[in-house]
Amino acid sequence: MRGRPEHRSIDALLCGAEVLAEEYDEGEVAAVRERVLAGPSAAGRSADAGTDDGRAVDMALGAGDRTAAQGRQYPTECEQAAHDLDLAVSLVINAPEAAASLARLVDDQEAIAPEGALVFGCLLHLARYREAAQFWWQFAAGGGSRTAAFCLCLHHRRHGEFRDADYWRAQSSRLTQRGRTATAAGSGAQGRGQCSAARPLLPEGVRHGLLSDCHTGGAPRLPHALEAVIHRLPVLDDDEDFGEIPQPARDLAGHLATP
């Protein structure tokens, strides 16, 4: 976002594991981030993951390799990435700042609102607009969102696109390093108070259900009524790479909160 010190960013909240419901504790979410940013374990490493860039990231984050191996729950890298992406998306949607971030994306068309684009991409993912979600995550990552780059890494890994996954893993790591100073500066008591009073993006039962689905190994998705809200959004003409790309509407947050 554009330097608003009263708001803690979704990146900062997710990195600090402060957006979790009862099912997940700080250690579990930290393990997800370390597992992904550390890269595949030696036993499961793909050929593409052996590129110079991939090795550089692995060396820089090598301390997380043990956590990566211990934290893996699924038999293949692709299945694990699919679960981790669903979890990351659900955590973003549960973030106290999600609704405000989405509103900034919608209300100021001239501004670059990377965290609003991150949230919108996560909504599209849950409504099964996977290619459009990728488009908005790329927009967000280009604006500096390390969580969007993290989602892109998982998105590509779930499809077995390990070279692209390595690229976005490196970008997420770079943006994490760059954002640490800003995160520390924005994590004072005033910022915490703003987040605690923020209006949630989705009804409590829906947000809780998304995390519960992740916890039980299911595939979280929006209820039909909320998917219908997404389906009614204006759509950009078919993009050559991403197909139909839904666009956020001004009344989107209100319809999501009370479908």
Provide the descriptors you would attach to this structure in a database record:
mainly alpha; two-stranded antiparallel sheet; 2 strands; 62% helix; globular
Helicity, as a percent range: 55-70%
**SSE pattern:** HHHHHHHHHHHHHEEH
Distance between the termini: 28 Å
Count of DSSP E strands?
Answer: 2
Radius of gyration, whole Å: 17 Å
Strand order of the largest sheet: 1-2
Mean pLDDT: 74
Poorly predicted runs of 5 or more residues: 1-7, 16-26, 40-70, 187-196
Estimate the strand proportion: under 5%
> Strand pairing plus helix content: what structural class?
mainly alpha
* Shape estimate: globular
Q: With helices defined by DSSP (H or I, 4 residues minimum), what is the helix count?
A: 14
The domain tally reads 1
Question: How does this structure look, described?
Answer:
There is one protein chain. Helix 2 packs across helix 4. This protein is 62% helix and 3% strand. The longest helix has 24 residues. The protein is mainly alpha-helical. It has 14 helices and two strands.
Task: Show the helix and strand layout.
Blueprint: H1 10-15, H2 26-38, H3 52-60, H4 65-71, H5 77-94, H6 98-107, H7 114-126, H8 130-142, H9 146-158, H10 162-185, H11 189-196, H12 204-215, H13 224-231, E1 235-239, E2 243-246, H14 252-257
